[in-house]
Amino acid sequence: MSRKSNRVARYTGLALAGAGLSHFTSPRLFEPITKSAFPRNTRQHVYTNGSIETVLGLGFSSKQTRSFATVGLIGYLAYLGGNAVRHSSR
After folding, report:
1. Which residue from 10, 38, 80, 81 could staple onto 45, CB 3.0 to 4.6 Å apart?
2. What is the domain extent for residue 17?
């Protein structure tokens, strides 16, 4: 990986971690988005999603953990997508 793409990946990871942390400082911003996939206990899921995004973002910011974070991101997107599809048919 080139030095520039490594820097972009690091900053992208830190931005994702920042977005994850903002779930804790401003949870009301994320409730309308989260409610479609998690209509029950929405606030709890906002915090859970914030935790996951923070960990994934920190994983992307380090070259040594980036491949694990990529696998985690795929699983996280499947988790979110599955819940959104499951609750959209109701």
Report:
1. 38
2. 3-88
pTM confidence score: 0.88
For residue 61, what are its two tokens?
Answer: 């910011």
Q: Distance between CA 65 and CA 17 in Å, rounded?
A: 14
CA 72 – CA 64 distance, rounded (Å)? 14
Q: How many domains does the chain have?
A: 1
Please, which pLDDT band fits residue 90 given cuts at 50, 70 and 90? low
Residues 6+ apart with CB under 8 A from 69: 13, 56, 59, 60
